[in-house]
Amino acid sequence: MPKYFDQNHINQILQVVDIVELVSSYVSLARRGREMVGLCPFHDDGKPSMYVSPTKQIFKCFACGTGGNAITFLMRREQMSFPEAVILLAERHGISLPEKEIQHEEGLADRNTLERVNRWAARFFRSRLEDEQAGVSAREYIRSRKISADSVRRFGLGLALTDWEVMVKAATDDGVDLNQLSQLGLVIKRDSGGFYDRFRDRLIFPVIDALGRIIAFGGRTLGDDPAKYLNSPESVLFDKSRSLYGLNFAKDAIVKTRTAVVVEGYTDTIMAHQYELNNVVATLGTSLTSEHARVLSRYADRIILVFDSDDAGRKAADRAIEIFFEQQIEVKIATLPEGSDPGDFLPAYGREAFEEHLAGAVDALDYKWRNTLARLESADTINGRKQAVTEFLGTISAAFGRGTMDGIARGFLLNHVAQLISIPTDEVGRMVRGLDRRGGRPNAGKTQPVLRQGSGRILNGRSRAHREILEVLLNQPQFFPAVAEVIPDPTEEISEPVLLGAADIIWNFYRENPEGNLAQLLARCQSPEMAVVITDLAAAGEERENYINTLNGALENIKRLREENTRQAIKQMAVGEAQQFGPEAQAAMLRDYQSQFRPDPRRIGVR
Question: Is-contact 583 528, C-beta < 8 A?
Fold first, then answer.
């Protein structure tokens, strides 16, 4: 534990934070018995493999082995250090940490400080929009887009003025570090020295992640800037390939409906929510990526992509189809009348008309096939037709390679294509397989094996006994005093490095916290790898259950092995010292040494 964190504060945080609520902000959870189950966000999980225990306040994936408490989850999911995760959870739950405890190591990427800077920037932009004079034209634009005052407040809209150093001056007056603003891309450093504002004369849209943190900003020009939209550059807080606008508001509705609707813009998302279509999100100036798909698959079983019917929308849909095949999730495509987007369509035609378009969304492959047919009809050369069919076969190849289509759908498509291009179905199948090999596409559901420390090893009898003891103690800590009598110092008893690392944490923790629980013990694990080891041990013990017999058996095995080692040591000593004498003297000396060893007949263990 770093010297600048007090265990009492860590325990306070873990008592306040509900791990189910935290994990649910990233993953859809369903109740299964006493626990919650969901898709693991730490590997490509095809079925729910991650269990979250509300009573123990821990999580564990039984596919990839990842596990731990709320702090561990946040560290792994957000790629945070231990101090960053502690500080973020403390801030989110109103727990004050003494200033001396939050002094960061030199070079530590301080995401929490940067997020506080973003919150300051959001307040700054909002104040400019609310300014009676400065915000007049921006408010008129908002009214022209039919965005309500409630939506403005809910989504935190703001305004960047036309001057070049408005934010720079305000930050200087408020004592905000300009270098941190520069790191976030809110201001830009001049070659000649000083800074200037990145966003100017733009309506500002704060981008908020699933945890409610402001991670970036988007700006829509209010003037004649050819760059219609401008987003924050990527930073330690913001990765546009995995960020979705409106997810903080939409995630609950997505989980409830098991459907996510993806649109293309800020105002499209706001307008959808304004019309109570609450499961709508948008990408941020980029096409849909595999990371977007992975994020949405944690909440939804079905994705509906809403595009304009123009060429750009069709190309975006094609890219999205291939990506979503990789994630093995149902994808449908809904198209609006050409030239329309949800931000214009909803005020003009209403929610019911928009929902009709969503209800009419077609399966992704069907959508792709319709586009292929249109290209075949319009192509005036054999090469043009061949290219259209080859591209479609490439899409099928991607689906086949990832196991996302059942046999009936696969056979239907192969027959359909075979009829179209007048070659046998078997030959179409060979063409698809050939494209798959040339494309080097991986098979679905095959993940690289994860090496888990402390599991999967062939342990000797002593190490197996040590592991069983640790498994019991993690589930029944009341037995620790009895175990500590037999093994007062694990460093003198345990030789297996991974087991010794876990034992060192367990012994130190239970000596200081005899009433402590597993979630608090895991807070001692600044290494996520060690948290995995401990949760593995705890899960194995819970599955075996027979705690008293297991513990007594392990302790008796240790006693027996100690006695055997003593016998062997005495024998080696006797033989070594007797070698200088004759056979009779050697035998007598050996009997004398052995007579000095009297095994302890007392039973050790618990009852």
Answer: no
